Give the backbone structure.
Amino acid sequence: MNTPLSDSDWAKLDILLKNKDVNLSKTINLCVSTVFLLGVCIMVFAFFIFVIFK
């Protein structure tokens, strides 16, 4: 039942893996930018609180 993969099968597998990598890196970039934006918002918020209650 375990037949060796043909060239076209390898190509399909390669494309699938590449797409997975691209999606993964997009997801990671999205997470990083979201965390970064949240961090910036918190910093600005904390700064305003500091200025108001000084």
The chain has a mean pLDDT of 87. The chain is about 85% helix and 0% strand.
